Automatic annotation (TrEMBL):
Limits of the VOC domain: 4-132
Similarity comment text for this entry: Belongs to the methylmalonyl-CoA epimerase family.
GO biological process terms on file: L-methylmalonyl-CoA metabolic process
Annotated GO MF terms: metal ion binding; methylmalonyl-CoA epimerase activity
Leader peptide range in chain numbering: none
Keyword RNA-binding applies: no
UniProt keyword terms in alphabetical order: Isomerase, Metal-binding
A UniProt-annotated Pfam family: Glyoxalase_4
UniProt protein name: Methylmalonyl-CoA epimerase
Domain of life, source organism: Bacteria
Amino acid sequence: MLEKIDHLGIAVHSIAEARLFYEQTLGLTCEHEEEVASQQVRTAFFTVGETHIELLEPTSEDCAVAKFLANRGEGIHHVAYACDDIKSHLAQARASGCQLIHETPIIGAGGKQVAFLHPKSSHGVLTELCSGETP
Ligand code: CO
């Protein structure tokens, strides 16, 4: 089952600039920065209660986050749900007619297993399923 909202992914042009809002305005602490080669992004994580904020800065001009920024500008990029069994959730999503971006989980930030559901099937919200510990 889905356990909680694990994190919100927020697309930004520059983590160095965006983190000032989270640190100075909201008073959060950046706990982890990581480049995720599989997604061509640099990430920075902040924690609020049981949920994280994941800032996403593209590291190439033709990756998905760069295209998102070009089309829609900075803002919420995806909602990630922590789940106990990502493969069974993917199977359930497929069986329900949902378009999948990943047929099988890939390795995301922090070595977690992640998979994305297409926003065309989720009313405009790119949806991530993840399992494993957030860094
Ligand atoms: Co994410």
